[in-house]
Design brief:
- It is a single chain.
- This protein is α+β, with helices and mostly antiparallel strands.
- The protein has 2 domains: about 20-150, no CATH class; about 150-340, Rossmann fold (3-Layer(aba) Sandwich).
- Helices cover about 25% and strands about 30% of the residues.
- The protein has helices spanning about 40-50, 130-150, 175-185, 225-230, 285-295, 295-300, 305-310, 325-340, and strands at about 25-30, 35-40, 65-75, 90-95, 95-100, 105-110, 115-120, 150-155, 155-160, 165-170, 190, 195, 205, 210-215, 235, 240-245, 255, 260-270, 280, 315-320.
- Strands 8, 9, 10, 11, 12, 13, 17, 18, 19 and 20 form a 10-stranded mixed beta sheet that branches.
Length: about 350
């Protein structure tokens, strides 16, 4: 008579933290660094691929460090089904930067080790936008900025011929609409809203994966493009605003193949100019004051002082919008043609 053999139980005590479980790995060159994503979860690796596959391999003068991001899928959230995850609460200590959301997920970052751990509750998989932007992107952006000494800006950047324009603007100033128009017009796109700049040489890099615009912005787009872009997925910001998530890695768009050197600064204004887009020169003192007020996080970092010393020498302008965003594109093209001299 044969005896039934009881299946072997996993030896939890031998690997209490799951460090020897099989993992998938993917390497991506991002923001001047070599990122290695690893996870035992196919779902989380798909989210990382969705965010970072197919992007230009930006290289900075410094040697590209190897940065590791481990993605872990946790158990079900303790709370019942939710309509939206809680926002991350930030903390730091013992050389670790952390963002955590009760019952949903957390990101722990150690810049000294060049590593980050992202833990995602299964419940949070219903919110891929939040996982990508508030957990994974938080790890990627913070690691790159801290390890490479980049200045992180809430700003956009477009350009051509290796030159770039730093585009600033408060919410509602039309920054995303302007970037969309620039992309459709064939300018190189570096970033829509998260830009990273070397503080002394003003090389600008970013992750130009998605562009987020309100659906009504498509009224300025040719009908064929509007029909195609209107089929993009929709996301809802925490503010409640619904936007189209347009993938910029389509053949119709041109992503900057390498970091662009900033040759000018343009503050986009929500005010209308009347008959056409209108440029007004910004004096260096006024520019630096607006940068300091609009970028409080970056202003507290070590690279801020050399950054403002370098950027104060650039031509800077306020650009009031015309009747059509295409007028904004024409003004930006002119500044790029003028090069570092700009137009004062």
């Amino acid at each position: 008579m044969t005896r039934a053999v009881r299946p072997a139980m996993p030896d939890i005590a031998a690997d209490p933290f799951g460090e020897r479980r099989p993992v998938r790995r993917a390497a991506r060159r991002l923001l001047g660094a070599q990122f290695v994503f690893e996870s035992g979860s196919a779902a989380l690796m798909r989210l990382a691929d969705r965010a970072y596959a197919g992007l230009p391999r930006h290289t900075l003068p410094a040697r590209a460090p190897r940065l590791a991001v481990r993605l872990v899928l946790g158990g079900a959230a303790a709370a019942p089904a939710i309509d939206e995850p809680e926002a991350l609460a930030m903390a730091s200590g013992a050389g670790i930067l952390c963002g955590a959301s009760a019952g949903a997920g957390m990101t722990a970052i150690c810049p000294e080790r060049g590593a980050a751990l992202v833990v995602v509750a299964r419940e949070l998989l219903r919110f891929p936008y939040h996982v990508r932007y508030e957990l994974i992107e938080f790890a990627v952006f913070t690691l790159a900025a801290r390890v490479l000494g980049l200045v992180p800006l809430h700003a956009a950047c477009v350009g051509s011929g290796g030159r770039g324009l730093l585009l600033l603007g408060a919410s509602g100033a039309g920054k995303s609409t302007a970037v969309l128009q620039c992309a459709l017009a064939g300018l190189h796109v570096v970033s829509e809203d998260s830009l990273f700049v070397t503080p002394d040489t003003l090389l600008a890099t970013g992750v130009a994966n998605f562009l987020h615009v309100r659906p009504q912005s498509l009224r300025f787009v040719p009908a064929r493009d509007a029909a195609a872009l209107g089929r993009s997925p929709r996301i809802r910001r925490r503010s409640g605003v619904e936007k189209l998530e347009i993938d910029l890695r389509q053949p119709r768009f041109r992503l900057a193949p390498r970091p662009l050197r900033l040759t000018g600064v343009v503050e986009l204004s929500a005010q209308r100019a009347g008959t056409g887009a209108s440029l007004t020169a910004l004096e260096p003192r006024e520019l630096l004051a607006r940068l300091r007020d609009g970028q409080p996080y970056a202003a507290g970092l070590e690279g801020w002082r050399p950054f403002v010393q370098a950027v104060r020498g650039l031509p800077a302008f306020t650009l009031r919008r015309g009747r059509h965003p295409g007028e904004t594109v024409r003004a930006l093209r002119q500044l790029l043609r003028d090069g570092p001299r700009g137009r004062r």
